[in-house]
Amino acid sequence: MNMIMSPLAWVFMLSTWGLIIGCTIYCFWKLMFSKHLESDK
Amino acid sequence: MSAEPKREQWASRIGLVLAMAGNAVGLGNFLRFPAQAVKNGGGAFLIPYLIAFLVLGLPLMWIEWTMGRFGGQFGHHSTPGIFDSMGKRRFWKYFGVFGLWSNLIIAAFYLYIEAWCMAYAGYSLMNGFKETKPEAFFQSLTADSPTSILTISGFGLSVFAVCIAINIGILSRGLSKGIEIVSKIGMPLLIVFAAILAVRGLMISPETDPNAQVSAFTGLNFVWEPKFTITNDSGVQTYALLSPKVWLAAAGQIFFTLSIGMGSMHCYSSYLRRNDDVTLNGAAGAWTNELCEVVLGGTILIPIAVAYLGLAEVQNKVAGGGFGLGFMVFPTLFNHWGSLAPAAGFFWFGLLFFAAITSSLAMGQPIMAFLQDEFKFSREKSALAFGAMLLPLALPVALFNQKSFFDEFDFWAGTFCLVVMAVCEAVLFSWIYGVDQGWKEMMRGADLKVPRFFYWIMKYVTPTLLIIILLASIFEPKAGWDGYVSSITTGKPAPAWEWSESSMIGKVLHRDLQLKPDAKPEEIAFNQNLRIVRTVDRLTMVAAFAGFAWLVSIAWKRRQLEGKVLTP
After folding, report:
1. Is the Cβ pair A31, B224 closer than 8 Å?
2. Do B224 and A9 touch (CB under 8 A)?
3. Which one of B176, B331, B436, B559 has the largest count of C-beta atoms within 10 Å of its C-beta?
């Protein structure tokens, strides 16, 4: 692990990134498999 | 309920989500967020930021999506009609006028910045910044001067005209063939450009690049290192998480980054059908915006600037926001990337351009929808009418000093009015229409089961927080709130009261135009002229609002005469 960044900075960054990327992927995953997908067509 | 009139539709759900995300992702994601994070406690800022996202951002997104879909069932695709369909009194449609007015005023200056991004992207691709300083290029675009009221640049006006024409052209193609296609191309490209810059930027280190002062990770650490104590506006050390300044900055950033309170989200979701989902769509759009802001936006501007300029210089530059860093400094820094420099500059300004255009298109659609719904304009005619309304507001933005029309439009429409509008819609949804009914409406066709505690958040927390933000922006003191709060807890004397330049009252009183005692005659003359131009500018904004209110009044009279019952 890069030691230029403090351990606390790594913890804050990776946990925030993890939360955001995880939630975005979850939403799009649900969108792809949703029963309402392309419901207009 | 009336029969649903024939109307435009989104071609695909992914297109709708990308259009909504594109509406939210704007220049602020890449320029404002990193500067705010650094100024307000780095990693510690992310705690109030994420809390604000949960209690303010997500609930308001869902409220706007739900209101839009609801209004759409009655043939309303802009906020006057949407508010009218939910409110029980006639005056609500006039609050909805904010959702037309703010879009027009914001578009007038936002398109100007979008035009800069376009010009910078083209000039970068030609490797122009190898020879030309960004300041000189900016000057040729804007002709801005600290002591001149008129700032006329033929080059700037031409680029601005092209940018407006592109927007009008896309808008005239409609939802599915215009906005949706641009979003489907622009959003992925924006993410790819940003990812390339972020990865390349993080590779900068003094070992591999002789121009680098420090590693880019030093900048990343600067953004993310939690600073639990910060120096407040009164110069006193305080705990970041107990500072009203930090919480207001976090709430403000969430508010503005999601494009809440503009009426554009209502408009987009009004094209949904009765049982189409709004919860998952809203959440997907909001999280995509966060991905672009926190993950990508936080990894480009500050790390690259710190690597080449050093921490101290970036700290100074960030104090004034990220705008100067992005436009004045970045093009020069890319020159250190050798043959990659033109591509890097193009990627940076290209991503800013895509971020801007997907937002500016969302500003035109509500006005077009209003003209189509109420005055039976065709798509092309309504796009041209939007252009005709835009022109008398956009021209002064380019022709006059940026401290006049540009700054005033930014504050009154782009900042203050959005909060007013958000307060209106939160109160209307939760208290007038009723949160019980609103919750049922939101959950119809929902693909994402929203946890029940959001019911209470929508009812109490979101409206209260919005009212606090509104009051704080009206009455903000120059010394900041921290000194007053700490005087209550510590018993120390509170700072003397003086209006902040960025408060609503400070703006009304022109607090930012206070002259120093030793001001030169030309500064005094400029100041006097600026006050006159600002007065004209404010009268123009009032006239634009009155014009929209008049159109709404005519439209509803026509509805009555035609015997149309479009409200429940």
Report:
1. no
2. yes
3. B331
